Amino acid sequence: MNTEHLIKESRSGDRSAQHLLYQQLSAPMMGVCIRYMKNQQDAEDVLLEGFYKVFKNLEKLNYENENAFFGWVKRIMINEALMKLRKNKEIQIMSINEDVDKEIDISPLKSLETADLLKIIRSIPVGYRTVFNLYEIEGYSHQEIADQLKISTGTSKSQLFKAKKLLREMLQSKNEGYGS
Questions:
Q1: What is the distance between the alpha carbons of residues 129 and 43, in angstroms, rounded to a whole number?
Q2: Does the 107-179 domain belong in CATH 1.10.10.10?
């Protein structure tokens, strides 16, 4: 069954269609959730809450194409992750740093395996990690991030700067360990 047909059947309450839609999307959406959450259990909670909202709101969805649907589901997952972080008071945004406009070279990231990179990103503070993911991975603008997190654009830029700086320091220290 194609995605459009699965959505149509899911809207009418067909549990097997809902299950197939979940199976089709759960792995990539788990990847989205795990980027924001500190551990697997929290990511799974976000995934389940996100899918609950997906199925609850399928009636409101105006299906255009598979990519648009995927983006809609992904946005729900990101919003769920941000809500969980806010609810648990995990997002603690630091003050603005005057070095914000300096660009940090994160080229060492390109040589890492995805799993290693994810592990390093997950180890940085939640505020840094959240802004880094939203900006670098999801492609949100600083204004969109500021609106989502209810912070200033300057704070978003500062968090991104600090995240990149911390990631670079962690990568350099990791690389030094390999060369000795």
A1: 14
A2: yes
Residue spans of beta strands (DSSP E) within 25-146: none
What is the distance between the alpha carbons of residues 91 and 88, in angstroms, rounded to a whole number?
Answer: 8
160 in Cβ contact with 132 (< 8 Å): yes
Rounded-to-integer distance, Cα 118 and Cα 128, Å: 14
CB-CB neighbours of 149 under 10 Å: 20
Two domains, one topology: 3-87 and 107-179: no
pLDDT in tens, 27-73: 999 999 999 998 899 999 999 999 999 999 999 999 899 999 999 99
For the domain spanning 3-87, the CATH number is 1.10.1740.10
147 secondary structure, DSSP code = H
- Residue 157's identity, in one-letter code, is K
Q: What are the phi and psi torsion angles at 26 (to 5°)?
A: -65, -40
Nearest to 178 by CA among 105, 107, 108, 121: 108
The C-alpha angle with vertex 110 and arms to 70 and 90, in degrees rounded to 5, equals 60
Q: Extract the tokens encoding 152.
A: 């200033």
Token pair listed for 4: 């459009």
Helix (H) or strand (E) holding 89: none
pLDDT tens digits for range 61-98: 998 999 999 999 999 999 999 999 888 776 555 444 44
